[in-house]
Amino acid sequence: MECKLCGEEADELITVKVEGRKKKACEECAERLAEEGTIAEEALGAMRDMMGYKGRF
Ligand SMILES: [Zn+2]
After folding, report:
1. Which end of the chain has fewer CB atoms at under 10 Å, N or C?
2. Cα(32) to centroid(ligand 1), Å
């Protein structure tokens, strides 16, 4: 699968909302978007679950 944001191949893609539009992104891009505050909070929660990440970004 190919990340729609950076074009890199990724094992797992996460659906993120960018400016109201859903996009498939790799974990790296999703994390970057989260840091920038672009990603929707609900998507963040789903990503944390998927990654088993208990902390904060
Ligand atoms: Zn990416």
Report:
1. N
2. 9
Q: Count of CB atoms within 10 A of residue 23's CB?
A: 17
Token pair belonging to 12 = 């797992």
What's phi and psi for 9, nearest 5 deg?
A: -75, 135
Q: Looking at per-residue confidence, does 15 or 41 come out higher? A: 15
CB 16 within 8 A of CB 22: yes
Q: Which domain holds residue 4?
A: 1-57
- Cα of 16 vs centre of ligand 1, distance in Å, is 11
| pLDDT over 90 at 9, yes or no | yes
Partnered with residue 23 across adjacent β-strands are 16
Q: How many domains does the chain have?
A: 1
